[in-house]
Amino acid sequence: MESLSAAERKEFEVFATGIADNARAFSLPRFRQPVDVTLKGDMSPVTAVDRGVESMLRERIGSAWPEHGLLGEEYGATRTDAEFVWSIDPIDGTRSFISGWPLWGTLLALLRNGTPMLGILDMPALDERWIGHVGVGTTMNGARCRTSGCTTLDAATLYTTTPDMFTADEWARFDRTSRAAYTRRFGGDCYGYGMLASGHIDAVIEANLMPYDYLAIAPVVQAAGGVITDWEGRALGLDSGGRVVAAATPALHAALIESLARD
Predict the structure, then answer these.
(1) Which of 30, 92, 225, 242 could form a disulfide with 209 if both were Cys (CB 3.0 to 4.6 A apart)?
(2) Would you kindly state where each structural domain of the chain is located, as residue ranges?
(3) What radius of gyration, in Å, describes the C-alpha atoms of the chain?
(4) Is 8 annotated in some ligand binding site?
(5) Does 73 carry a binding-site annotation?
(6) Is 201 annotated as a binding residue?
């Protein structure tokens, strides 16, 4: 895997944290305020805040790095075959945002040749931010963080956002796997992955995700010592399917993959 140089990492991180600050300054004052909600074609909600954050981020990235590609939830993809591509999820957890629940975030990723290298998971309402550099490390609010040392499913605290994201077959596989864990919990959207990176929980299993849902998460989890792949154990990229499994350790990840694969 081709890594970024120290100078590149610094330049991209300074830029990315700056625009994450801008996104937070736009979204947070509008949280728990009246907002118009419309439904997209897939019946998921969207607000002017989602669109406003993404528009601002796309403008800032396009101005600073016109040769870079872009992928965003609200306005689609451009030049995704470029060496560097930015992924944007302006409000991950729009249902949380519109219901006053603070577990929504902004996700930013930088990919190089299709591989996520830098990820930012920003939780404006909680004033928490994870930054992950693959091969370097993950920080939460500037302090280094690590995944837990959990290696067995029967000792693991396992999260998913909602049962509604699974097909009937996927639910059967998730239900069997999660019931073998020490405990399973629901809710959180992107926040669960931050909790995983900081060692508070041990695993997350989800389905029906889009690339902008997981591309920023991947560096945050990996650089904290965890493992994150699709359900078949393949690395995540622009063309991965929507099924994601993340774990604190390689041993726990292998146990999850094995359980999910059983008929």
Answers:
(1) 242
(2) 6-145, 153-261
(3) 17
(4) no
(5) yes
(6) no
In the chain, % helix, strand, coil (3-state, to 5) comes to 35, 25, 35
Say which CATH class 153-261 falls into: alpha beta
Measured distance CA(18)–CA(254) in Å, rounded: 37
Measure Cα distances from 257 to 25, 118, 147 in Å.
Answer: 39, 25, 18
pTM summary value: 0.96
pLDDT in tens, 166-214: 999 999 999 999 999 999 999 999 999 999 999 999 999 999 999 999 9
Neighbours of 167 (CB within 10 A): 11
CATH H superfamily, domain 6-145: Fructose-1,6-Bisphosphatase, subunit A, domain 1 (3.30.540.10)
CA 67 to chain centre: 24
Scanning the chain, the segments in alpha helix (DSSP H) are 6-27, 48-64, 94-98, 168-179, 191-197, 211-214, 217-223, 250-261
Q: How many CB atoms lie within 10 A of CB 113?
A: 13
- SS3 assignment for 160-187: ECCHHHCCHHHHHHHHHHHHCCCEEEEC
- Residue 205 among known ligand-binding residues: no
Tell me the two tokens of residue 82.
């470029």
Q: Which helix (H) or strand (E) holds 232?
A: none
The first and second tokens of residue 49, run together, are 């805040």
Q: Binding residue per annotation — 206?
A: no
Residue 223, SS3?
A: helix
